[in-house]
Design a protein that fits this description.
It is built from 11 helices and 12 strands. The longest helix is centred in the C-terminal third of the chain and has 21 residues.
Length: 376
C-alpha cells in the first residue's frame, strides 16, 4: 500500500487510474476479495457454514476492538451507520425536555434521527455551525447546558475534512453538560487517521470507506462505563439473552451496551471483509498510513491555493484528515476534465471533494493539480 510494489500487488484495480475518492468508496485490496470468496465457500456449505461464520465474527470483533482501543465485549456490528444511529435514538428515548447538539458539517445519518422523532418525543436540536469550514469550541460552549442529552459529532467531516479537536471537545462537554452522551461518527477516520476519541460514549462507523471493506456493515463501540445507558430497546433476537429460553414470550432480556445494537443475524460477508481489511491495515500501521498520506493532503492544499482556490476547510498541520474539498462555479467542467485523465474525485453540484489514502501517491496529486490548472 505504501510502496509501488505493494500497491501494484495489493490493488491491481488502481492500475491506470488516479483514485482520489476513498471518502465515498474505497478500493479494497485483493485479500478482501479473497475473504468475500471464502465467505461464499462457507455459505455454500449450508448450515455447516455457520461453524465458520460465527468464529469469523468474533475474529472481526477482536481486530475492530484493537483499532478502536476498546475491549472486545465493547464492540459490536449492525448493517450500517444509519441503523446504528436509529438504534442509538431508541436507546436514549429522548423527550421534548431534552436537547441535542449536532453540527452543520455532519453526515445526515448522525443528525436526522433527532429530527424525525414524533412531536411528543422530539428533542430540541441545537446546531453547532462552522466558521470558515472549522468548528470553534467557543461556539459549542454556548449550546451546552444541564438539558443537553446528546452531543453528536464526526471526528472527521465528510463534507470538507475538518477534524474535531476531540480531547478539548470531550473536556468541555463533560464540564458543561455532564449528563450528555458524546457520540462520535468515525466513518471518515478509522483506517486513515490515528484515533484519539476512544473515551467517547459511543463510536459509530460504516465499513466501506477508509477501512477498505465492503457495504453491509456498521461498527459500534460502547465502553463499559456507558453500556447501561446505551442499551437499545429495539426488538430482534440476536441481541436477546433469552431469545430461545422458556420465558422468551414473557420478557426479553437484552444484552447491554454494544451487543444490544446487533439485533439480527450478522452481515457475515461484510464482517469477513472487515476482519481481513482491518488486519491488512493493522499490519501496515495506521500511523504509517497517516505519515505517508498527510503530506499528500498538504500538497493538495498548497496546490489549490496556488491556483487561487480556497479549500472549504483550512489546512490542519496537526491532527489532519484525508479529505480536501473546494467549491467552484465550474465544477462540472472541472470534473469532466479530471475524468478524461482517469482522475476520480467526488463531484456534487458546486463542490469537488478529494480523498487521499495510503494507496495514493505524489504522482496522483501532481496529476490532479496539473489537470485542474489546465481546466481552469
Amino acid at each position: 500500500m505504501l510502496t509501488d510494489s505493494s500497491r501494484a500487488a495489493d490493488f491491481p484495480a488502481l492500475h491506470g487510474i488516479h483514485y482520489l475518492n476513498t471518502a465515498a468508496e474505497s478500493i479494497p485490496p485483493v485479500c478482501v476479495s479473497e475473504a468475500v470468496a471464502e465467505y461464499m465457500q462457507h455459505k455454500s456449505l449450508g448450515m455447516r457454514g455457520r461453524d465458520f461464520h460465527f468464529p469469523r465474527v468474533e475474529a472481526c470483533r477482536e481486530i475492530t476492538a484493537k483499532h478502536l482501543g476498546l475491549a472486545t465485549d465493547e464492540v459490536s456490528f449492525c448493517s450500517c451507520s444509519s441503523e446504528a444511529y436509529n438504534l442509538l435514538a431508541n436507546a436514549l428515548q429522548l423527550t421534548r425536555n431534552d436537547e441535542v447538539v449536532v453540527t452543520d458539517l455532519d453526515f445526515p445519518a448522525g443528525a436526522t434521527p433527532w429530527l424525525t422523532a414524533p412531536d411528543h418525543a422530539r428533542p430540541v436540536t441545537r446546531l453547532w455551525e462552522n466558521r470558515g469550514g472549522a468548528l470553534d469550541l467557543a461556539d459549542l460552549a454556548g449550546l451546552l447546558n444541564e438539558r443537553t442529552a446528546l452531543v453528536q459529532v464526526s471526528l472527521v467531516s465528510f463534507y470538507n475534512g475538518h477534524r474535531i479537536p476531540f480531547p478539548r471537545l470531550r473536556d468541555m462537554v463533560r464540564q458543561l453538560a455532564p449528563a450528555a452522551v458524546l457520540a462520535v461518527d468515525i466513518t471518515q477516520a478509522i483506517g486513515r487517521v490515528v484515533l484519539d476519541c476512544q473515551d467517547a460514549d459511543i463510536l459509530i462507523s460504516s465499513t466501506h470507506k477508509w477501512t477498505l471493506g465492503i457495504h453491509g456493515g456498521g461498527i459500534i463501540g460502547i465502553p463499559q462505563k456507558s453500556a447501561a445507558r446505551l442499551t437499545t430497546k429495539a426488538g430482534g433476537w440476536y441481541h436477546i439473552a433469552n431469545a430461545f429460553d422458556p420465558d422468551r414470550f414473557e420478557s426479553a432480556r437484552i444484552k447491554p451496551g454494544a451487543a444490544s445494537f446487533s439485533v439480527g443475524m450478522p452481515s457475515f460477508a461484510a464482517l469477513y471483509a472487515l476482519n481481513t481489511s482491518l488486519r491488512y491495515l493493522d499490519h501496515i500501521g495506521v500511523a504509517k498510513i497517516a505519515a505517508h498520506a498527510d503530506p499528500l493532503v498538504a500538497r493538495v492544499h498548497e496546490g489549490l491555493k496556488e491556483l487561487g482556490i480556497a479549500p472549504l476547510c483550512p489546512a490542519q498541520p496537526e491532527n489532519g484528515s484525508g479529505i480536501v474539498a473546494f467549491k467552484h462555479e465550474n465544477t462540472a467542467v472541472i470534473n469532466e476534465a479530471l475524468l478524461a485523465e482517469n482522475i476520480h474525485v467526488m463531484h456534487q453540484v458546486g463542490r469537488i471533494r478529494i480523498a487521499l489514502h495510503g494507496y495514493n501517491t505524489a504522482e496522483d496529486v501532481e496529476k490532479l493539480l496539473a489537470t485542474l490548472r489546465g481546466a481552469l
